[in-house]
Each structure stands twice: as C-alpha cells, then as structure tokens.
Amino acid sequence: VEVIPAIDLRGGRCVRLHQGDFAQETIFSDDPVAMARQWQEQGGPRLHLVDLDGAATGEPAHLEIISAIVAALDTPVQVGGGIRTADTARAWLEAGVDRVVIGTAAVRNPGMVQEVCSSHGSGRVVVAVDAREGMVAVQGWQEASEVSALELAHNMAALGVVRLLYTDISRDGTLSGPDLDTNTQLVRETGMAVLASGGVSSVEDIRQLVPTRVEGVIVGRALYTGAVALPEAIEAATEREEGSDWWGDGG
C-alpha cells in the first residue's frame, strides 16, 4: 500500500480543511515547495496535490506553485482541483504531472474523463469519488449530487477508468479513522485500484487499511500534526500478515 502525503493549496499556502469546510481552515506552511521536498526526503512514493481554490472555482489557481513542485521533485505528483476540461488535464500532464485527479467532471461530464483516458492512457487518470453520507459531492465538495459513490465507481469502470480516489468527506480532516467498509466494497465490487482518503489518524489506521487491498492511502492532517510519522507509516503499509492469503502476488 502506498502512503501518499497530501498537500492542499489555498491562497498559495499548505492548509487542511475540516470536512471540506473552507471556513474551518488550518494553515500549516507558507512554503509548499519546501513541504513537498520534506515529504520526498522522508520517503513519500508520490505526492497528492489539491488546488482547493481551483476546486471551488473550476479553474486552476496554483499553476506556478504546482509547476515549481513538479520541477523540484523526483517523486511523481498527482494533481486535482479544478480539472473540468480535457484541455486542462492535458496541460497538467504535459507539464510533468504524473496523474490528474478528476472529480466534478466525472459526474457532470463523464465523456471528458473518457476522452482523457483515451488520449493519455487510463493509468494517468484518477477519478475522485468524494462522498457525504454515501452520495457524491461536487464543486469542491460544496454541492451534493444525486449519484451514489458506488454508482459513480461503476460508471467510471465502464468508461475504462482503472483508479479511484475515495474520500469520506465526514471523516476528512477529523482524524476519526478511515472508512474501511466502503473502501473494501469498492475494491471488491469494481475490481479497480482504490486510493483511500479521509480520517487517517494513526499508524494503526494504516495497518487496518492494508487488508482492504486498497492500492494507496492519502494522509494529510495526521502527518502535519505529527500524529503519524511518514517513515513509520510507510513501514506499516508494507507489513504482511504471517499465514494470510489475502495479499496476493501483486502486493
């Protein structure tokens, strides 16, 4: 399981929100590039960057900072927030971003997701399934849709998407523990690679995610507050249970 540090950008700074609420913001750094370097130096296998302003407005707002992070790192970077058109996705991928994370457009314009997968390869696309009480939220989590998390996952699988990022919004930024049941269900019922996000509070939470067979886990507030040390988290994510047969050859 990959442990992926998150860098959420708002107003040029690294922040964390509580349950996606822009009014409940904690600022952790005024230097996102330095923060990205820190996570790379501590062994992060990739970084998850979110343009929060872009997610709210529908237009990328941190082009210069994210480009600077990509240029400064050897670690692959995936970027989400405000990617609503195929042109925007292409621009990020051509700028050196490894993967684009598409949320709102997956609900409102699924043909755009299919176009990006066809043009750039499905391995470079992550669809964000951001759910509140089982229903997907859009527009920077500020608006509810009428699509369930599982329905969106199946719709995206039918379009050739191979990777999801599932976030339980009610847990995001709360350090209340991850949603083990839904992550397990998504892996089993869709056969897709799933990245888990929201609520990780301890190394033990990461150990509990390993048997769900998620591909990775996004960790934010727990890293910034020191509740989780990245090297210890990475070690926990690679532990195998003796005598277990759930792991499989792929690890």
TrEMBL record:
Keyword Zinc assigned to the entry: answer is no
This protein's GO cellular component annotations are: cytoplasm
Keyword Amino-acid biosynthesis on this protein?
yes
What protein is this chain from?
A: 1-(5-phosphoribosyl)-5-[(5-phosphoribosylamino)methylideneamino]imidazole-4-carboxamideisomerase
User: Which family does the record claim for this protein?
Assistant: Belongs to the HisA/HisF family.
GO MF, one annotated term: 1-(5-phosphoribosyl)-5-[(5-phosphoribosylamino)methylideneamino]imidazole-4-carboxamide isomerase activity
Catalysed conversion reaction: 1-(5-phospho-beta-D-ribosyl)-5-[(5-phospho-beta-D-ribosylamino)methylideneamino]imidazole-4-carboxamide = 5-[(5-phospho-1-deoxy-D-ribulos-1-ylimino)methylamino]-1-(5-phospho-beta-D-ribosyl)imidazole-4-carboxamide
Q: In which compartments does the protein localize? A: Cytoplasm
Q: Which GO terms describe its biological process?
A: L-histidine biosynthetic process; L-tryptophan biosynthetic process
Q: Which keywords accompany this UniProt record? A: Amino-acid biosynthesis, Cytoplasm, Histidine biosynthesis, Isomerase
Which coarse location class describes where this protein primarily resides? Answer: cytoplasm
Return the InterPro entries for the record: Aldolase_TIM, His_biosynth, HisA/PriA, HisA_bact_arch, Isoase_HisA-like, RibuloseP-bd_barrel
Q: Name one Pfam family in it.
A: His_biosynth
Q: Which pathway does the record list?
A: Amino-acid biosynthesis; L-histidine biosynthesis; L-histidine from 5-phospho-alpha-D-ribose 1-diphosphate: step 4/9
Query: Under which EC number(s) is this enzyme classified?
Result: 5.3.1.16
